[in-house]
Design brief:
48% of the residues lie in helices and 22% in strands. It is of the alpha+beta class and 743 residues long. Strands 12, 13, 14, 15, 16, 17 and 18 form a 7-stranded mixed beta sheet that branches. Strands 8-7-6-11-10-9 form a 6-stranded antiparallel beta sheet. Strands 2-1-5-4-3 form a 5-stranded antiparallel beta sheet, sandwiched between helices. The termini are far apart.
């Protein structure tokens, strides 16, 4: 009870002080003397005085007013005066009539007081909350938030104390947001109404067109016992007409199901075992999209089993959706027993063709399996020795050994890739004969010199004999002839054991009319030989007697197939004889045209530092978009003494040449596949420059594009030479020397 009295005394003192005129310190001292216990009351009064000072400095508005009918204002702090735009408490009292009612906008007063009364009645312990408008001294209207509390006490009577803050900006922001939301909703409603109107307008036309199409489809599809609609991207299929077979997949209901499930279940249930894989492949989404990308429709014929009897069906698939993004298709099934019966006379031929195709598929699958193994073997070595090199960076001798192993494995992988690509070239008819003047002894000597290190590694006796040539100067394609003999000799060295023997013999067997002669190139070895069973298949692509795992010798098994293709292209043939564990002999027979007035042949001298010292400080423009290739090629060329400038696409290269002076760039190395402008376009643009000297800068293609057609396109676009990646440094240097020297 004593504590409650103390609190009431303190509030009473606060209210007493608040009744004093503003800043009246004399009134405060005089007031202290009135109380019967001056010392005690002075403490209360000092405390009350400090509380009032605190309220005056509060950042938010604070108000105390009586809760009687007049609602007379007891106190308003400085922050509240600022909200109302008043300079003093007297200004505030005058503006509001010294009443809470005078503070509230007259249009909001009834609602405010009713809300306060309702909140107090609901809970006397919580702050009541209201929003209302006020009219500032300057006449402007502002919104405020009011948090108030009602106090009832016999000692201090009934009062309200209220916390007030300016909420005008908040209300304005909410108002703007509300207006924006209303406008957005209005626009959405108008848009929706317009769409509905447009839809209603077209709905009748669509329905009519739909009915006509259904009639047309029904008429055209009379021969199809099942018609289904599929969305490949959505993996859904919907039946339009069901047969006794397709009803099972749809549970006799015209409802959609998953496309992939339907295909799998249909094939497993109905399709003949021998045709299952073919039908599954031909009905995958990827295959369907591929076939329909170039044709509106395609079909597949296959067999089904009904009650143990074989029937023939045709599935036709038609694109009925977007031509660019194929997804919606119609699938129609029809019986073709009569058509198949009419073709039974050709059945044996078809079966033979199918058998050959299956054999080719098996051979290719075997080849791919072997290639997967043979590619991963050198790759494993490359990754492995690279990892070991990183672990022994301080051991130079060990690092050199690891780099040698990486180099060997890289060359094995490159050899495999080259041979696979060459098989692809031959099958795509991308081989062209370029006949030129050749000196056979020079070609044979070059081949012998390049392969001698491989033979020396195994201590193999590798001999060359071209004494049997009567007319050494002929016309032929030197690159193809060289490739042909290299494949045969590489095989011979590879499959000959250490201390064995390999021979290359060139003979001119007979002369023919019109200055032609028959030449034979014999490659004989003492190697492992070839079994009689495999001799019949030795030149077939994708065939080899043993893979790398069983033979212990790295090889693709493609060299002989490539050699056979080249010999055929050159108009000749290859014969082989072999005995297991004794060796093999390959004889290439070619009919070649003899040169009537041969020029004196001089073999190219080795390129030494002295012989190309004049190339130092020559500036080369290197055009390459791949960052790794750009770094490697720049390092190699700078290491050879060239000055290098780079461009990451053909457009930049053209601009650099155009802005240069004649002679600034000695040569351009041009990649082919690049963004913005490719190498072909860039070469044409450079050749079209107004400055004739700039337009004649030598351009060498340096690209991973290695087909004959790629080389031809390089020449047609104005380039001087086409070299392939990976970079053969001696060959690159020879080409650079050729064109810079010729300037």
């Amino acid at each position: 009870m004593a504590k409650q009295d103390t609190t009431h005394h303190l509030i009473e003192y606060i209210l007493t002080l608040l009744d004093l005129p503003e800043n009246n310190e004399n009134g405060f001292s005089h007031l202290i003397e009135k109380f019967p216990e001056p010392e005690l009351d002075r403490n209360y009064m000092n405390t009350a005085h400090e509380i009032i000072k605190f309220m005056d400095e509060m950042p938010g508005g604070f108000l105390i007013y009586h809760a009687d009918q007049d609602e007379k204002i007891v106190y308003a702090n400085k922050a509240l005066l600022r909200i109302f735009g008043c300079d003093s408490l007297n200004d505030f009292r005058e503006l509001t009539g010294n009443s809470f009612k005078g503070m509230v906008h007259h249009d909001d007063l009834d609602a405010v007081e009713a809300s306060i009364s309702e909140q107090i009645a609901a809970s006397q312990y919580d702050l009541d909350y209201v929003e209302y408008r006020i009219i500032r001294k300057d006449g402007t209207i502002r919104w405020v938030e009011d948090y108030g509390h009602f106090i009832h006490s016999p000692a201090i009577h009934d009062i309200f104390y209220v916390f007030i803050s300016d909420a005008t900006e908040k209300k304005e922001r909410l108002k703007q947001e509300t207006i924006a939301l209303q406008n957005a909703r209005k626009q959405e409603r108008e848009k929706l109404q317009n769409l509905i109107k447009a839809y209603d307008k077209e709905k009748k036309l669509i329905n009519q067109e739909h009915l006509r199409r259904l009639e047309v489809i029904e008429g055209l599809s009379v021969n199809y016992d099942s018609i289904l609609y599929a969305d490949l991207n959505q993996n859904k299929i919907l039946p339009y007409r069901l047969s006794s077979r397709t009803k099972r997949q749809f549970c006799y209901k015209y409802q959609p199901c998953e496309f992939l499930w339907y295909i799998s279940d249909y094939v497993n249930t109905w399709v003949h075992p021998d045709d299952k894989e073919r039908v599954l492949t031909a009905t995958t989404p990827a295959y369907i999209k591929h076939k329909l990308s170039s044709n509106k429709t395609y079909y597949i014929n296959y067999r089904i089993l009904i009650d143990g009897k074989t029937k023939f069906l045709q599935l036709r698939i038609v694109n009925v959706g977007n031509k660019e993004q194929i997804s919606q298709v119609v699938m129609g099934y029809r019986r073709i027993d009569e058509e198949v019966l009419k073709e039974m006379e050709q059945k044996q031929l078809l079966e033979q063709a199918l058998s050959n195709a299956n054999l080719a598929i098996v051979a290719k699958n075997t080849f791919l399996s072997n290639m997967s193994h043979d590619m991963r073997t050198p790759l494993n070595a490359i990754f492995g020795f690279t990892a070991l090199a990183k672990q022994h960076l301080n051991d130079q001798q060990l690092i050199r050994h690891y780099l040698d192993q990486i180099d060997t494995s890289s060359r094995q992988l490159l050899d495999l890739i080259d041979k696979v690509l060459e098989i692809a070239w031959s099958e795509s008819n991308d081989i062209h004969i370029v006949e030129s003047e050749c000196n056979l002894p020079a070609i044979l000597q070059e081949i012998h010199d390049s392969l001698s290190p491989d033979a020396l590694e195994k201590n193999i006796s590798f001999s060359l004999d071209h004494s049997g040539l009567k007319h050494p100067d002929i016309y032929s394609d030197p690159d193809k002839l060289s490739h042909l003999l290299r494949y045969l000799l590489s095989n011979a060295i590879k499959y000959t054991d250490n201390n064995g023997k390999v021979e290359l013999i060139a003979l001119e067997s007979e002369s023919q009319p019109d200055k032609y002669a028959v030449y034979q190139f014999i490659v004989r070895d003492t190697g492992i030989g070839i079994s009689k069973e495999f001799l019949a298949h030795v030149f077939e692509p994708f065939e080899r007697e043993k893979n790398t795992t069983f033979s212990g010798i790295h090889g693709t098994g493609l060299g002989l197939a490539i050699a056979k293709n080249i010999a055929t292209t050159l108009g000749g043939d290859i014969q082989v004889s072999s005995t297991v564990n004794k060796g093999s002999t390959f004889t290439v027979t070619l009919r070649l045209r003899i040169q009537t007035d041969p020029l004196l042949y001089t073999a190219g001298a080795d390129i030494t530092n002295d012989s190309f010292s004049y190339l130092l400080d020559k500036r080369i423009l290197l055009v390459e978009d791949n960052e790794i290739n750009l770094e490697i090629e720049t390092e190699i060329l700078q290491g050879l003494g060239f000055l290098i400038e780079t461009a990451v696409n053909g457009s930049i290269a053209v601009d650099k040449v155009k802005d240069s002076t004649p002679g600034y760039f000695s040569l351009i190395l041009m990649d082919i596949q690049m963004p913005v402008m490719d190498g072909y376009q860039a070469a044409r643009a450079i050749r079209s420059l107004d400055d004739s000297q700039l337009a004649q800068i030598p351009i060498i293609a340096l690209s991973a594009n290695a087909f004959e057609s790629d080389k031809q396109m390089s020449m047609e676009s104005g380039m001087n030479e086409h070299l392939t990646k990976p970079i053969d440094i001696p060959l690159l240097l020879e080409a650079i020397t050729k064109y810079i020297h010729s300037k």
